[in-house]
Structure formats: C-alpha cells, structure tokens
Design a protein that fits this description.
The complex is a heterodimer of chains A (389) and B (290). Chain A contains 14 helices and 16 strands. Chain A is an alpha/beta fold. In chain A, helix 2 crosses helix 13. Chain A folds into two domains: 25-146 and 286-366, Rossmann fold (3-Layer(aba) Sandwich), CATH 3.40.50; 150-275, Response regulator (Rossmann fold, 3-Layer(aba) Sandwich). In chain A, helix 4 links the parallel strand 3 and strand 4 (123-125). Chain B is 73% helix and 2% strand. Chain B is an all-alpha fold and 290 residues long. Chain B has eleven helices and two strands, in the order H-H-H-H-E-E-H-H-H-H-H-H-H. In chain B, strand 1 and strand 2 form a beta hairpin. A two-stranded antiparallel sheet of chain B has the order 1-2. In chain B, helix 2 packs antiparallel against helix 3 (61-84) and helix 5 packs antiparallel against helix 8. Chain B has one domain. Classes of the chains: A alpha/beta (389), B mainly alpha (290). The A-B interface holds A 37-40, 42-43, 45-46, 173, 199-202, 204-207, 209-211, 213-214, 216-217, 230, 233-234, 237, 240-243, 262-263, 265-267, 304 and B 2-3, 6-7, 10, 13-14, 111, 115-118, 120, 127-129, 131, 136-138, 141, 207, 211-212, 214-217, 219-220, 251-256, 259-261, 263-264.
C-alpha cells in the first residue's frame, strides 16, 4: 500500500509542482473593469460583469492571448461618479492594469477619464452614451457603445412608420439623460416634429408622478424615456396609473425588455425599446452563431435572461481589449492604445472598428454599433410590425 | 386646474408615507436621543420581508405586510438590546457612529443576500386606475394611504391614550422618577425602538409594491425621514405627520411647476428656510422632550 502511494502520488505531485511553476512564470494579463455593482443601477453593472466573464473564459479556453491567460480585476463604482474616479486610480496605480473597460454610466465614465490621461492608460467604454465622452479630446478613450446622436440617427429611418408628431421627454438627470434629450430632440426637430414637455428625474428617484402629470398635460403622442431599467419600470407603472396614454420609446439600450415584462407586466405592453442586442432572436444578429453561443453560455451559467441586453456589452468590451493586446503583442498601455486603432472584430452587436472623433490631434476612438428597435407585444419582445417581413 | 388637483393628490399620497417614516424616526430621535442613521435600513428590511413572504412563500398580501412589520419590530428590539443598551449614558455621538455602522453593515448584508437586481412585489390590486373626475389614482395607492392613516392613528392612540404611552413619555421626560414609579425603563427603551423600527418597516412594506425593492432604497427614505423630522420638530408626533404631508406636497408642486430636475432641492430649500426662521421646527413647542 505504502509503495503504491509512493509510486503514484509522488510523480503526480511533482507534475503538479512543475505545472504550477510553469503557470506562475506566465502571469495573467490584467484587465481592469469599472462597473456599478451596487447602488441604483447595480443590476446593469452586474450583467456587464457577467458578460465580461464569459468573454474572459472563452479567451482563456482558446489558450489566452499569446499564451497568457486573461484576468479581470473588477472594481465597483457604486453608481457614483466620485467612486468611478477612485476605482480608476486604484486599478491603474495599485493593480498596474495596462487597460481598462468601464464605467457604465456617462457621468461615471466622464469622472474616470482624467485619470486615463494622467496615467496614460486606455479605456474601452462599453455602455456610456453622452456625446461629450469622445468630444473632449481624450486620446485614451475608445467607445464601442453608440453616443445618443448615433442612436437618434438609427431611429430616424423608422420615423415615418412610427408617425411621431409631437414628442415629450423624460430622462435621468445625468450627462447621459441630458445628452439623449438634446440628441433625439435635434433629430425630431429636423423632421418638423414638435417638442413638448422635457422632464428630468434624479437617478435614485422612485416617484415620478409629478413629471408624468406634466407630460399628460403636454398632449404629445410619443414619450422618449431615457434611464435605467429600474426607473423605466417605475415610469411605465406610474404612467399606467395616471392614464398617460402615449407611445413610449426608451433609448440607451439599457431597458431590458424581458425584465420590464416581468416587473411592469401589462404596463410595459406596446412600448418600444432601442436595444443593441436581441437575445430573443439571435438569428437576426450580425453574427448569428456567436450570438447563439453567447445566449446559450449565459443561460448555462444560470445568469438571468433579462440581463442579456446589457451583458453583451461586457463581452464585446473584453473581446475588443483582448484583440488589441493580441495585435500589440505586449500588454503595455501605449502599445494597446495604438493597437486599438487597428482592431477590426465581429462582436455580438456587430462589427467593431474605431473611427476618429473629437478635436484634431487628440481624437478618441468611436465605433459604429448596430442599433435595433423592438416592441413588447403579448408579454414578449418582438420586432415592430413595420419591421417584420 | 386638472393638473393641479392631480399634483395635490400625488403629493398627499407621497406625503403620507413620508409622515410614517418621519414618525418612527422622530420617536427614536426625540424620545431616546438616538440619531438613528439605520432608520432607512428598517424601511428596506420591511420591503424585503414583504417580498420574501408575498413572492417566495406566497403568503396573502396583507398578511405579508403584517409579517414585515412584526419582523422589523423584532429586529429593532434586538438591535436596541444588543447595540444600544450597553451604550446608554454614552454621548449622542457614540450611538450615532454605531448606527452609521449598522446602516453600512445591513445595506451590504442585503446586497449579499439578495443581490443588486431590483425585486418587484406582487400585489392583488387591479393595475387599472380609479378615475374620479379630473384625477386618477391606482387602487394600490389608495390602499397604502388607508393603511398609512390607520397606522398613524394607531400610533397616536398608543402614545397619547394608553398606559404604555404614558410610561414611554414619562421615561424620556425623567428616567429616574419614572423608574421610582415602578416603570421598567429598560423595557420601555426596547419597546420604543422596536415601535419606531416597526413603523419604518411598515413604510417599506407598503411602498415596496408601489416602487421596487433594492438594497440602497433606504438611503433616500432615510433622507426624507430626517427632512420630515427637522421640518416638524424633534420628538413631535403631530409635527412629523404634518411635516411629511407638507414635504410631499411641496416636492410634488415644485416638480410640477418649477422644475422636475430640482425636485429634491425644493424640499431642502424649505428645510433651510425653516431652520433660519424657526430653528426648532415648524410645530415645535417651547422645549423638547427627552
């Protein structure tokens, strides 16, 4: 018995020691992630993290980047811009990450951006929509999510079918919400649609009756709603209570129609949602196989289905960063930034490729994401009637 | 005019729940001299208990709310026995720091236990609004307003009309004399804290189904509760009730006729004015109890 132990255990342990030594020589490539994991928009932040983890595991299963594994260092920005700047500082200065992904909300991203310039570390922005992010002349910023202007242009082609004559706006009182009101308002004015009430709400506000009462009196036919899924749920429910009969269109891609169906029920019926990923019909996405594989993996992990419209962002952000590191051949901030300009990748949303945006000489990178419109019909997300073949 | 009436009704519905939050805090604050920063957490707890009972255990909705109020009171009593009793006689700052600690610990505990994703509490009321002339209101909100009125009236009777209420007020006016009269002073402290916490849990249980339930929901609630207490005067029951209603209506009209972006600012402007003109609160008597 003793001999058996020696014969088998000893070589096995030796092999383990050798293997672990080999892995230790190859430190993983660290990618910093800043996301709101707690606070009013925690759900979205956690979904982005889940998507990023799937991308990480897929990359590592394929042998990593240049033989090195990828590790995510996730910091919580607590849905708070001040915390976002602190998280960026911590990841860069203490954890020495060569590249970041973040920080979900526009106000949080804008707060973290000066740190990128200060330390010279690039960041892939996966969710934020405020135009100012790529217009400020921060050459370390690379955005894969659409700014509100691009989103508005994406909706422009459906204006005829939707028949909007007068629109009211309701938005979260942040850079994102205010930016969306300007962008969609400008687009509608170009098409001679009237703009009625423009109302804002605090990020943590729960009672929106005052705003909705005003909107009810404004008499438009469409309400553009820009905020997180938590507040969209409340607005839909309260709009129903106050009999605000309007076509409602949510912008920003963070509306999670499946979660709305679950939590707002009948109040969500007939509402339209601009989304950047359609997990209900992956076959309609630019890369159907990739989309199907992602939805399957997400479900296999037991992640909530309603998080997919947000989670895809995490995947695309990490895939973009890994591709840049592969092109750069080394995990070093300056090299990764230069490589990001050369990335040409098929993500879950569609092709990712950066174009220059912002003041000449100090441009940020901006990709041109695909934009989709879905409608909640019969308690399910569906393509609007005018888009169905 | 149509919009004005709707704003007024909205403000009243909102103000009722502010009042409930304020009463719980003002009792603990004014009578026990404890600045309860964890007040919002009992609100959150009430909402999560209702969610657990109504959604997970499929208990009857009204029973689920009762379970939440009872749970909140029991946890309040436990908190007083374990955290506050050993600190009685310490300065107000010490208990304040302990309550801030409790606030952070409970909120993170809730995040760990339930996750950050908001929960929705199912309720048996129809979602179609009741329309009365120019205004409309959801049946659930009317139920909440009725429940709030019952709770406020019940609290008033308890404090002003029962022997227990007399014992409570006596204890916080003069502890030594009360003890000499045969009142169980320790028990009164526990009961008062349990009562205040139970009211916060009730507010959470009632508002949870209207709004959504998530770990940081108590922060805004606590802020409103403190505003109501400052507005109404420390330890003043009627002041907290009226203060809540005034704050609710002011916010609603401010958002409706000034700017919705400055909704919360309207409440704070009123508080600053009150502090400048009547520093002890709108409805404060000459001196404060406790």
């Amino acid at each position: 018995m003793r001999r058996w132990v020696l014969t088998w255990i000893a070589p096995t342990s030796l092999a383990l020691v050798i293997v672990s030594a080999g892995v230790a020589q190859q430190d993983p490539i660290k990618i910093g992630v800043i996301a709101p994991l707690s606070g009013p928009v925690a759900a979205s932040g956690n979904y982005v993290r889940m998507g990023a983890e799937i991308a990480r595991d897929w990359i590592n299963a394929r042998g990593g980047v240049h033989g090195r594994r990828v590790a995510l260092l996730v910091e919580d920005n607590k849905s708070d811009p001040k915390e976002a700047a602190g998280a960026a500082e911590k990841l860069i200065a203490r954890d020495q990450v060569p590249v970041l992904m973040g920080a979900w909300g526009s106000s949080m991203t804008l707060a973290a951006m000066p740190k990128l310039e200060e330390y010279g570390v690039p960041m892939v922005v996966e969710t934020s929509s405020a135009a100012s992010i790529t217009k400020r002349g921060n050459p370390w910023v690379f955005r894969i999510s659409p700014p509100s202007e691009m989103e508005a242009l994406g909706l422009e082609k459906y204006l005829g079918a939707l028949g909007i004559r007068q629109a009211d706006f309701m938005a979260v009182n942040t850079d994102w919400g205010r930016g969306a009101v300007t962008a969609f308002g400008d687009m509608l004015r170009r098409h001679n649609a009237g703009i009625g009430a423009v109302e804002f709400m605090d990020q943590a506000a729960t009672d929106m009756n005052a705003q909705l009462t005003k909107i009810r009196g404004a008499g438009g036919d469409t309400l553009f709603l820009t905020t997180s899924v938590e507040q969209i749920t409340l607005v839909l429910k309260q709009a129903q209570e106050l009999r605000v009969a309007r076509r409602i269109i949510t912008t920003g891609g963070s509306s999670s129609p499946s979660q709305l169906v679950k939590q707002a029920g009948a109040a969500a019926e007939d509402s339209y949602h601009i989304v950047f990923f359609m997990p209900w019909f992956p076959e309609a996405m630019p890369d159907p196989n990739l989309a199907k594989a992602f939805v399957d993996e997400w479900t296999r992990r037991g992640n909530p289905f309603e998080g997919l419209t947000e989670g895809f962002r995490g995947h695309d952000g990490i895939a973009t960063i890994a591709e840049a590191i592969r092109i750069a051949s080394r995990a070093e901030p300056q090299a990764i930034r230069e490589a990001l300009w050369k990335v040409s990748l098929m993500g879950l949303n569609g092709p990712i490729k950066f174009e220059k945006d912002g003041p000449a000489g100090r441009e940020s990178g901006q990709s041109r994401p695909s934009i989709f419109l879905v409608q909640i019909k019969g308690g399910k997300a569906a393509l609007p009637a005018f888009l169905r073949k | 005019m149509e919009a004005f009436l709707q704003h007024l009704l909205n403000g009243l519905l909102l103000g009722g729940t502010y009042a409930l939050l304020g009463i719980g805090l003002t009792l603990i604050f004014g009578l026990m001299n404890v600045v309860n920063f964890a007040h919002g957490e009992f609100y959150t707890l009430g909402a999560y208990l209702t969610f657990a009972a109504a959604s997970l255990l499929r208990v009857n909705f009204v029973l689920a709310i009762a379970v939440a109020i009872l749970g909140g009171s029991l946890l309040g009593a436990l908190c007083e026995r374990v955290l506050l009793r050993p600190l009685r006689g310490e300065s107000i700052d010490t208990t304040m720091l302990v309550m801030i600690g409790l606030w952070i610990a409970t909120q993170n505990g809730e995040l760990l236990a339930w996750g950050g994703v908001a929960k929705s509490i199912p309720h048996p009321f129809p979602t179609a609004p009741i329309v009365i002339g120019p205004v409309s209101v959801a049946p659930l909100r009317l139920f909440v307003l009725a429940a709030v009125l019952v709770l406020i009236a019940g609290s008033h009777v308890l404090i002003h009309r029962t022997r227990l209420g007399v014992a409570m007020r006596a204890t916080f006016q003069d502890r030594e004399t009360a003890a000499l009269m045969g009142i169980d002073v320790g028990g009164i402290h526990t009961l008062t804290f349990a009562f205040g916490s139970g009211l916060a849990a009730a507010a959470g249980a009632l508002l949870g189904p209207i709004f959504l339930v998530y770990p940081s929901m108590g922060d805004l609630a606590a802020l409103k509760a403190f505003s109501v207490v400052i507005l109404g005067g420390l330890g003043n029951f009627a002041g907290a009730t009226l203060g809540g209603v005034i704050l609710g209506i002011a916010e609603e009209l401010g958002a409706g006729y000034v700017s919705s972006g400055y909704r919360d600012a309207v409440g704070f402007v009123i508080i600053i004015l009150v502090l400048l003109v009547r520093p002890s609160g709108l409805f404060a008597r000459a001196g404060r109890v406790g």
